[in-house]
Amino acid sequence: MNKMFISAGVALALGAGYSLTAFSQAKPEVMVKQRQAAMALQGKYFGPMAAMAQDKAPFKADVVAYNASLLDALSRMPWDGFDASTKDVKSGTLPAVFTDTAKFKAAADQLQSAVEKLVAASKGSDMAATKAAIGGVGKTCGGCHDNFRQKP
Fold first, then answer.
1. pTM of the model
2. SS3 sequence of 23-70
3. Domain boundaries in the chain?
4. pLDDT tens for each residue of 88-136
5. Which CATH superfamily, name and number, covers 26-148?
6. 3-state helix, strand, coil in the chain (%, to 5)
C-alpha cells in the first residue's frame, strides 16, 4: 500500500512538473513582441552612435560608452524569441530564419562579437577605432537584415 502511495505521489509530482513547464512557456505572439522590443531598443541605442560615426552628430565618448554597454546586453536578448513556434506569427522575419538556422545563429554571434569589440573600443581614447567599431556593428546589423528581415 505504501509503495502505491509513493508511486502515485511520484507520478503526480512528475506530471505536475511537466505541466508547469508547458504552461510557463511563452506564447508565440508574446515571443515575437519580446524580440521586436529588444530589436527596437537596439536601434534606439545604436542610432545615436551611428550618427556620430558618420559625423552627422558630435562625437560624445561618454554617450558611446553608455550606449555600447546597453547594446551589449540587448544584443543577447532577442534570439530565443526566434523559436520555430513563431514562424507563422506575422512579423518582418523571413522564412530563412527558420530554415537556415545555422546561418542565422552565426549572424547573431557576429553581432554579439561586433558589439563586444565596440564596448572595448569605447573604453579607450581612440575615436577613429571607436567609429570603426560602430561601423562594424552597423555592417553586421545590415547583413542580418538583408538575409533575415523583410524590407519595410
1. 0.81
2. HHCCCHHHHHHHHHHHHHHHHHHHHHHHHHHCCCCCCCHHHHHHHHHH
3. 26-148
4. 999 999 999 999 999 999 999 999 999 999 999 999 999 999 999 999 9
5. Cytochrome c/b562 (1.20.120.10)
6. 80, 0, 20
